[in-house]
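Q: Fold this one first, please.
A: Sequence and structure below.
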Amino acid sequence: MDRPALIVDNDDTAAPDLGALDGIVGFHIRLAHGAVYRHFSETFTGLDMTQKQVSVLWLVGDHPGIAQIALGGRLRMDRATTMTIVNRLQERGYLRRERSSSDGRKQSLFLTPLGESALEEAKACIESHETWLKSRFTPAEIEKLVEMLSRIHD
């Protein structure tokens, strides 16, 4: 049985031949996500927070008293993930829980002063990250890209 010859490409500067993969949208989304995630991780090294943790702080900062279940729904996270993230942020002193005044079964979330400081630092990192990301596109392309990506995640 003949095997196809192994093609070795030693030219690291050349764009790789992706063959049929080049036409797979999901493949390009995965590559783009990887690049964005790597840059995010590099930008956030000093904060010791994940993207989800930053998103939780930001949303609680924008909506003081938001119910934990509503927070998870807005960020499209399941209940267990939401609870784990909120617990970690509370352990770090960034969030506090209070029983909802309108529904005693719900937990309302608020930033602590330490959480407000962490959020401000995170926002500065996000601004830097967003500047890097948006520099690859024109304002019109950014608007269109957000619109198109929303069709996937909405």
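Q: Good. Now the second chain.
A: Here it is, same layout.
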Amino acid sequence: MEAKVKSVDTTSIWRKKPLAAYEADMKKSELKRVLTRWGLTSLGIGAVIGGGVFVLTGIAANEWAGPALALSFMMAGVACAFAALCYAEFASILPVEGSAYAYSYGTVGEIFAWLIGWNLILEYMMGATTVAVSWSGYFEKLLHLVGINPPLWLMNDPVTAQEKAEALRKAGETIPDFTFAVNLPAFLIVWVVTYILVKGIKEAASTNNVIVIVKVATVIFVIVAGAFYVESANWTPFIPNPVVDKTGQTHYGFDGIVTAAGIVFFAYIGFDAVSTQAGEAINPKKDVPFAIIASLIICTVLYILVSLVLTGMVRYDALDLKAPVAQAFADKGLTWAVYLITIAAIAGLTSVMLVMMLGQTRIFLGMAKDGLLPKNLFASIHPTFKTPWKSTILVGGIVSTVAALTPIDKVSELCSSGTLLAFAMICGAVWLLRVREPNLERPYRTPALPVVATLGICANLYLMYHLRTDTKLTFVIWCTLGVIVYFLYSRRHSNLNNQE
């Protein structure tokens, strides 16, 4: 029998999904439960290690934090830790797909849950797009290393291709004119990942596990081998003096460290992706909390060590913005290491893309099951593969098209803004649930919850406040669009409109 749900106010935007309804959803789930404790942890590491190490370190250190990038990673890691502890308690209570969206729906209310779900769409979709473009950049670097030089118009979006062509012409090179350009590698890799995800979670997890082993080994290699080329003079000054640009934004100094923390925060969303896979975990109440905390701790330590080695090998203002780790070893004459790091970066970014797109479809699935999105599209499960195949193909289509045709600049901050708000909301929601439902079974309990929740809310909102003004403005526009969609469609189609 299905669990009976309590009567809810069908008119209020603050209406909450009864916890009994979650139990009914879990019993009816068509997803395969195949993920083990370490399989979940591997998914978390797969999402975290990639863009942060191989891409964002150069931008964050060069333009914002200098050698103090290690402090930025530490700051972002601490803010994530507070949220992770709260996530872990929620994941043990509600082991369902949907992540922060599902948790908020059962505690804070529908409008907040919708906004969090809407922002998670931004987080995962734009995150996957950014990673696809970064993947293309490293793939192009690999082709150059083996002597293959594909035309600009085949490796870049139209705007970026023209910019590169003009720069090369100014440098004296002859570049033929072109009227069409597309980032073909970014387009194709998204569809490879989409195919893996449609085939099934077991196949996706197996692919991810192999990639995780390769890139974790490479990151450890970077730390150990790079340590022999560290020059302590590159760490001086460890915190460069503040510089204010023409827009009034402060670079370096404490403000620069905080801004850099907001930028690299994008690289920490892996543990959030773990919670989206609860519906496919064998023992979600115990294994999801473990995987959330374990993946965050492992990756934070690796990030801090890599940032210290990288800024020790190359002076911060000379770091390459696109491929900082590979370029650092190239500057030391370690060509063989450049091959290894470039290949690992390609593999690493592939797994990040895989987990992000995986998480995106599970967010859609959770929202569609609640009636907030069309069920026939977003909640349709393939009869053989047991995956949400329609939404997976839709996500693949959107991500591949945007990655192929659009120049992606500073989008990591936009992804971070959605994540930061979701994390702050979860910290408040788990505290609220502890007060409202003190006798609820909690296989995992967040220690010192009032302190952890308060610090989590403050830390995440503080980092959000220090994001660039244009990022915050774009985020407000996205949220406004989400509110419009909610009132035009989701509120009227919500399952909570039906008392049965």
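Q: Anything worth noting on the second one?
A: The longest strand covers residues 243-244.
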